[in-house]
Design brief:
Two copies of one chain form a homodimer.
Chain A lengths: L1 E6 L2 H13 L4 E6 L5 E3 L2 E3 L1 H11 L16 H8 L11 H15 L4 H12 L4 E4 L6 E8 L29 E6 H7 L8 E5 L10 H7 L2 E4 L8 H5 L4 H6 L5 E4 L2 E2 L2 E2 L4 H7 L6 H8 L6 E4 L7 H6 L3 E4 L7 H19 L2
Helix pairs in contact in A: 1-2, 1-13, 2-5, 4-5
């Protein structure tokens, strides 16, 4: 069975671990989100790709869910001693090696997909992982930073609402800024509303070699409970990928990242609001739409959502969706595959 | 008193520490060797500059003489796990930060001299340190690698002596190669003769901003007991620097790195042989020459050298030259400055 999985970071990685447990012999291709990539200290950092690679390769810090196990942060402390930041992004001593190797290979002319393959040579994640694109895509978020935020800079009154408030006079007017997704997510912990979420560069990006081929050859396509906007949504924003999935003619089944009207982990509600989608299991299903999605799993606490989702033309079931451990996650994966078979035989 | 010091790595750094102890109020400018710079893992590494900076800034590993105190090597182990080397060059987790900051600043367009100044902002070495040049100079060494050396590659018989020996037939013919100085020094520990030492790029290099000005403004110019070929020699190979020193009209005094016909530390004899200079205190003095050098300190064990050196037109004294601790080194520095005054009043 050939399975294609669109994956973000922690949620996607953990789901994949369950999927491998559920169907150890399946041929799994992961299309990884690169919209959260960031250049730090002159190095190319791909947080989602690394989270999947480390998680499936046994190198992840289980507690944090990102970065390397048994990690230390001495290099970062030294960078801070030089006054070089950002300090809010956690790059560990062991993790740095991945970014150094990646950056060196990219500088030598290898595309990110080839670099990812080379890195996976070490980690043997047991899946084929392809970045969604070899082109540069970076998700940016429009926010209004509160006055006094270090990134807001000296208040000039030129932010949102500047028309109404003379420069320097109004307190709390804030400064409108477009910031990197990581700054929004990691530094600000999504503490201010995301006014817009833009995968910069996506429109000009091409799917990486192998992406469309894997989709065309898939027996099943799965959307793990990853962030629908900044993970799955970014992958779908690369021209050709959404179309290829819709036209693949195989079951496309997703798992809701929203349980009981709140994200299971992360802060998906913040970025869902930016695209006008309610933070509910049904709203996310309808956001993907029946043109893309054939089946949708919601958590048992959201069983009341099932009818509405099925009315929207998406086959739906309510099952436990908490990835508390690998076995529970494997059960979720089996449910997703069972729903796919149900959809296929309709 | 304005003192200009031409410095290599460990020897130069330790001498400078003694010099600062001897004349705490002196205005010291260090012209640093960059011929041993190397690109590793996509990062620009300047071992000599860093050794001086860390030593004078209190960050050096005292026992090794290079790298950071309280160092760990986790990042390097991870690079090795990716199969990315070289493994023979010791870059520690804390040390990496210096190379990352440097590389990032260079990529942003700053010249090495500005980068060095920025790094020294943190370390406050108490001297002004200028790299000899902002241009790329890398010392290379011609060697005959023994068969079986990992860098020799599969034996093709195309090395030195290939004409006489049919391919693959003769044992021990070796493979002639030009390798980076660091590979010769660190990986091979100078275990094979240096057939030639070439500061690649030196001929086209220009002295960094401030170098010639510091020399012209100096009251005294000192050559610490650094390597006469790959440290001081490389600095002098940058067009304009040797001439500026010779024409400065101030005492130029050196300290012999050779004591009792052997280098005090390092393997200076190996590279002296490559330039046809005997490994003796007098031969090194004559190698610099009376056109450049006004005074020369030899160790007391080399007192018999004094007459010969003075006959060559270089004022010479025999004093203890072992840098066993900072106080002993400070005494050496005072002797060098005393000799400079003696020369000046001639």
């Amino acid at each position: 069975m050939r399975i294609v999985v669109l994956a973000g970071g922690i949620g996607g990685a953990r789901f994949l671990r369950g999927l491998k447990r559920a169907v150890p012999d399946a041929d799994i291709t992961v299309i990884g989100n690169t919209g959260d990539d960031i250049h730090l200290f002159g190095l190319k950092v791909c947080p989602d790709l690394d989270t999947v690679m480390y998680t499936l390769g046994g190198g992840i810090d289980e507690e944090r869910g990102w970065g390397r196990t048994d990690e230390s942060f001495r290099l970062k402390e030294e960078l801070a001693a030089y006054g070089v930041g950002p300090e809010w992004f956690g790059l560990g001593d062991r993790d740095f090696a991945t970014h150094i190797v990646r950056t060196q290979m990219l500088a030598a002319g290898y595309p990110l997909s080839a670099v990812t393959e080379a890195l996976c040579d070490r980690w043997q994640p047991g899946v084929r992982m392809i970045p969604m694109t070899d082109d540069r895509v970076e998700t940016h978020v429009a926010v209004t930073l509160p006055d006094g935020d270090p990134a807001a800079g000296p208040s000039t009154g030129s932010g949102a609402g500047a028309g109404e408030t003379p420069p320097g006079s109004a307190a709390g007017s804030g400064v409108r800024k477009v910031i990197h997704f990581q700054e929004y997510w990691v530094r600000l912990r999504a503490s201010v509303p995301a006014e817009a979420v833009v995968p910069v560069g996506a429109e000009q990006a091409k799917p990486a070699p192998g992406v469309l081929e894997a989709i065309a050859a898939a027996d099943v396509i799965l959307f793990p409970p990853s962030n629908p906007v900044v993970s799955i949504g970014t992958i779908l924003a690369v021209p050709g990928i959404r179309e290829a999935i819709a036209e693949a003619g195989v079951p496309v089944v997703g798992l809701s990242p929203i349980v009981g009207d709140a994200p299971v982990r992360g802060m998906a509600d913040k970025v869902l609001a930016a695209v006008g989608v309610e933070s509910t299991a049904w709203a996310v299903a309808e956001h993907y739409g029946s043109g893309l999605l054939d089946g949708w799993l919601v958590d048992t606490v959201d069983a009341t959502n099932v009818e509405r989702i099925e009315e929207a033309g998406i086959r739906c079931r309510a099952v436990p969706l908490m990835m508390t451990d690998v076995d529970a996650t494997a059960r979720m994966a089996r449910e997703a595959l069972a729903l796919a078979e149900e959809v296929r035989t309709v």
